[in-house]
Design goal:
Its main location: membrane. The protein starts with a strand and ends with a helix. The protein has a 3-stranded antiparallel beta sheet, with no helix packed on it. Strand 1 and strand 2 form a beta hairpin. Helix 1 packs antiparallel against helix 3 and helix 4 runs antiparallel to helix 5. The chain is elongated. With 181 residues, the protein is mainly alpha-helical.
C-alpha cells in the first residue's frame, strides 16, 4: 500500500506471525524511491512558495517577539536564579542572537545562518533553564518537560531550515531568480 506524502512515499507492510501461544505484531516501514509517487495535482509550486514564507514567519515569530523580553530585569533575574553565569550579560546577548536569527529567517536573508543562531540560542537555554530532571515537584517537572520538548522540536525545525534554506520568496534568493529569468 503506497501513500503519496509530498516528495517521498512510505510503504507500510504489517506482518502478523502467529504461533500457538503468542500473537506477535510487527510493523515494518521502508522508504520508497523519493520521486516515485509524487502527485502533480497535490503539489502546486506557485502556491508552495507562499506556504514556505508563512512557515518561516510562523516558526520565527516566537523568537522575534520573545527576544525583547531578554532585556528586562525579571528575565535576567529568572536566568540568574536558574544558575546562568553572568546573566546580566548573557541574557541580553541571547536576546540579540535570537532577534538576528529570527529576522534572518523571516526575511530569508542568510536564513541558514539565522537558523544556526536560533540553534545556538536554544541549546544552552534548553539545557540550563528547562532541566526538568532536577525538579522534584511533579507539576513543575511536567511544565519544564513540556518546555524542554518544545525547544527540542524547534531545534529540529531550525535544522530543517539549515538544510533546505529559505525557499523562493526570500531576500537571499533574489539574485538566483533574476539569473533564471
Amino acid at each position: 500500500m503506497h501513500f503519496p506524502i509530498s516528495k517521498c512515499s512510505v510503504s507500510l507492510l504489517i506482518t502478523i506471525p502467529v504461533d500457538s501461544t503468542i500473537h506477535r505484531y510487527s510493523t515494518y516501514f521502508r522508504i520508497a524511491n523519493v520521486n516515485t509517487f509524487v502527485s502533480t495535482k497535490t503539489l502546486k509550486p506557485k502556491k508552495m512558495k507562499y506556504t514556505l514564507l508563512a512557515g518561516r514567519i510562523l516558526f520565527s515569530l516566537i523568537f522575534l517577539l520573545s527576544s525583547f523580553g531578554h532585556f528586562s530585569e525579571p528575565s535576567i533575574g529568572y536566568a540568574a536564579s536558574k544558575g546562568v553565569p553572568m546573566a546580566s550579560f548573557l541574557v541580553p546577548l541571547s536576546g540579540i542572537i535570537e532577534l538576528i536569527g529570527a529576522l534572518s529567517i523571516i526575511l530569508g536573508y542568510k536564513a541558514k545562518y539565522g537558523a544556526w543562531l536560533i540553534i545556538l540560542f536554544l541549546l544552552p537555554v534548553t539545557v540550563m533553564l528547562h532541566n526538568f530532571w532536577t525538579i522534584s515537584d511533579p507539576m513543575a517537572q511536567q511544565m519544564d518537560m513540556a518546555a524542554f520538548m518544545k525547544n527540542i522540536s524547534m531545534i529540529g525545525g531550525a535544522l530543517i531550515i539549515v538544510h533546505f534554506g529559505s525557499g523562493p520568496l526570500s531576500l537571499g534568493n533574489r539574485n538566483s531568480s533574476r539569473a533564471s529569468v
